[in-house]
Design a protein that fits this description.
CATH class of the largest domain: Alpha Beta
CATH architecture of the largest domain: Alpha-Beta Complex
Largest sheet: 7 strands, mixed
Bound molecules: nicotinamide-adenine-dinucleotide, zinc ion
CATH topology of the largest domain: Quinone Oxidoreductase, Chain A, domain 1
Structural class: alpha/beta
Distance between the termini: 10 Å
Helix content: 25-40%
Radius of gyration: 20 Å
Strand content: 15-25%
Number of helices: 11
Length: about 350
């Protein structure tokens, strides 16, 4: 089968032909119907050798959807031919966090050597992939896999962050979205669907700001040192009740710090290495800072249900497996609008 693999530290991903994998006991093989490209893949491929802890070669892709193609011994709960999406943040399934469906916060995954597909395990950017447990599949039903696949991360991650900020996102509140890319353009739609907040989107790219307006941002502005003042003006000096930073570099966490209201919640979602000093006289009274990671299994089901109502929709650009390396180049260059999705 064909697969898109990261093979050499610092090199570009390659399209290769490898053996079709066989499911072991308890495992499921999917024929992949769609796989999304995330900026975190770029992060992984930019890690220096001493910080890269994953196998090589590694098939990329942690947003996956497929059709159940083969069952390992003892698997029940899905049938051959079922259309499913992959819940990516694999955990142990047994600890307290996993018992609540929050496998994204499993405390034992690392020690047990359990990794998400495409982020340690072999990923979704291939014709077939292996799922470690039926628990990590969510039925897609009538959802189109190409439309739905990015909901597993670009939808789920902002959803998880927004849910944790609902207490401050009352009608009349203001939410700021920094970075209107794959995650950000879904964050804007989710804020529209779930809250009565006024949404301000910031980006460095005009086309992304146009997309932000199209998908529901009330105000857009260039991301830069003037952005906090723009936000303060729109909020009569108060600042925004919630800031979702989908970039997370030093410059954007500084915008978040200067834009947050008293008692507000900052979510640093982007993994750009920005550090925000939280403490008195750094952030306003009552403000909090979170670093959310992905989302829970039940939240993924909720995101799919929201998509079924038509209130959220991923803006997709489609690529073939052969075009995946080019799609990664475009993701790096910042010229993908919404999400790049590979259809094998
Ligand atoms: P993306 O490339 O699709 O989007 C990034 C957007 O940020 C682009 O629109 C780009 O123009 C914009 N941008 C770049 N610099 C900016 C700046 N200084 N100010 C404002 N906007 C700026 O990326 P993505 O796939 O949406 O991922 C976003 C970030 O979230 C990445 O850092 C990724 O690794 C991270 N991520 C985190 C989690 C998590 O669980 N915490 C999950 C998925 C992705
Ligand atoms: Zn991701
Ligand atoms: Zn666990």
């Amino acid at each position: 089968m064909r697969a898109v693999q990261y093979r050499v530290i610092g090199a570009h991903p390659e399209v290769v032909t490898i053996d079709k994998p066989e499911p072991g006991p308890g495992q499921i093989r999917l024929r992949v119907t769609a796989a999304g490209l995330c900026h975190s893949d770029e992060f992984v491929m930019n890690l220096p050798a001493e910080r890269y802890n994953f196998p090589l070669p590694m098939t990329l892709g942690h947003e996956g959807a497929g059709v159940v193609d083969a069952l390992g011994a003892g698997v029940s709960g899905v049938e051959l031919g079922d259309s499913v999406a992959v819940y990516g943040p694999w955990g142990c399934g047994l600890c307290h966090a996993c018992a609540q469906g929050k496998e994204n916060y499993c405390n034992r995954a690392a020690e047990l050597g359990i990794h998400p597909p495409g982020l340690g395990a072999q990923g979704a950017l291939a014709e077939y992939m292996i799922i470690d447990d039926v628990r990590h599949l969510v039925p897609l039903g009538d959802l189109d896999p190409v439309d739905a696949v990015a909901l597993t991360d670009a939808g789920l991650t902002p959803y998880h962050a927004i849910k944790a900020a609902m207490s401050v996102l009352t009608p009349g509140s203001t939410a700021v979205v920094i970075g209107a890319g794959g995650l950000g353009h879904m964050g804007i739609q989710l804020l529209r669907a779930l809250t009565g907040a006024t949404i301000i989107a910031l980006d460095i790219d005009k086309d992304k700001l146009r997309l932000a307006t199209e998908v529901g941002a009330h105000h857009v502005a260039p991301s830069g040192p003037d952005a906090p003042q723009f936000i303060r003006q729109l909020t009569h000096g108060d600042g925004a009740e919630a800031v979702f930073d989908f970039v997370g570099i030093p410059a954007t966490v500084e915008i978040a710090r200067q834009s947050i209201a008293r008692d507000g919640i900052i979510h640093i979602v982007g993994i750009g290495g920005g550090i925000l000093p939280a403490g008195f006289f750094s952030i306003p009274y009552g403000a909090s800072v979170r670093t959310p990671y992905w989302g829970s299994r039940s939240e993924l089901m909720e995101v799919f249900d929201l998509a079924r109502t038509g209130k959220i929709k991923v803006h997709n650009e489609r690529f073939t497996i052969e075009q995946a390396p080019e799609a990664y180049e475009r993701l790096k260059a910042g010229t993908i609008l919404g999400r790049a999705v590979v259809v094998p």
